[in-house]
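thought: fold this chain, then report.
action: predict
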Amino acid sequence: MVRDRAAEAARLLAAAEEALDGGEGEEALELAGRAEREARRAGATELLPDLVLLQASALNHLGRSAEALARAESLLAGSPRDNAAMLERAFALWELCRLPEARSQLEEILRLAPGDAWAHHLLGVVAERQGERKLSEKHLARARRLDPEEFPEPVHLSPEAFDAIAGNLSQGVCQVRLTW
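observation:
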């Protein structure tokens, strides 16, 4: 019975990860909650950090940043150098507009893992918001070099080209609405 519960918890964790990867935050959160309950009943404590991290990610995805922050911090209480938990914490802090704290967390991540593309990217975004253009460009460029698939080069458009694209998009939206 305990083995069955542990196997069910692992299955639910995998399903929750798949749901989150597919952009289904609510489903991921629900599955991760069920998996956490099963893991606790089975004594499968080795699954709990992954489940708490997944819940924090799903909560961030859903815009429930205060809850995501609490989950990330609960994980960091037991594993203060968990890179993924620190990154989820930084995302939550960013979303909560707690920029100095987000920046401090991201700098800590980069001290421990200088090649973390997501930390460079988010630090670049935080620096941009704080008005530090050079620092922002440095970290955004570093993220692009580290993971060009995830962080492609930005597309530069003239104001005229932007207006033309925006005009075409709005016409397309109107046409779609008219056909419904």
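thought: worth noting. Residues 173-180 have pLDDT under 50 and may be disordered.
final: tokens above.
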